[in-house]
Design a protein that fits this description.
Layout: E1 5-10, E2 15-24, H1 26-38, E3 48-58, H2 66-73, H3 76-79, E4 83-87, H4 91-101, E5 108-112, H5 115-123
Parallel strand pairs: 2-3, 3-4, 4-5
Antiparallel strand pairs: 1-2
Length: 124
């Protein structure tokens, strides 16, 4: 798998950060989460997630957004009752993020344009 993401856990905040770069497909998003899950990289007690797409472009058709929401719903042991902030300044990425948010069930997601606002929301 070509890695088009990096990640970091901030233990002082309890937030898992994932940074994407370059063109991103639906499969890239799923594969990156599978990698993180299979390697047990999300620490116990994680309060929430900030996914930074500011250096990426989602090559995802809008009608495919339910597959992202389904992934989170199918992994509520990790994402259940947690907040997933989507950080992006690309209009297409914002649309995809809003569409995913409309399908939230058992977790919460929301797009943001600044890191500060994303962190504040995850911790609220």
């Amino acid at each position: 798998m070509e890695k088009n993401f990096t990640f970091q856990f901030d233990s002082s905040l309890g937030i898992f950060f994932k940074y994407y770069f370059g063109p991103i497909t639906l499969e890239d998003i799923g594969d990156s989460w599978e990698y993180v899950i299979e390697n047990h990289l999300i620490p116990e007690g994680t309060k929430g997630f900030v996914l930074d797409y500011r250096n990426a472009v989602m090559n995802i058709l809008p009608d495919k957004h339910p597959r992202i929401a389904d992934f989170y719903k199918n992994n509520l042991d990790l994402y259940g009752n947690k907040k997933i902030a989507i950080l992006t300044d690309n209009p297409h990425n914002v649309v995809i993020s809003i569409l995913v948010e409309s399908k939230d069930e058992g977790y919460h997601s929301k797009p943001f344009s600044t890191m500060e606002a994303a962190i504040q929301w995850v911790l609220s």
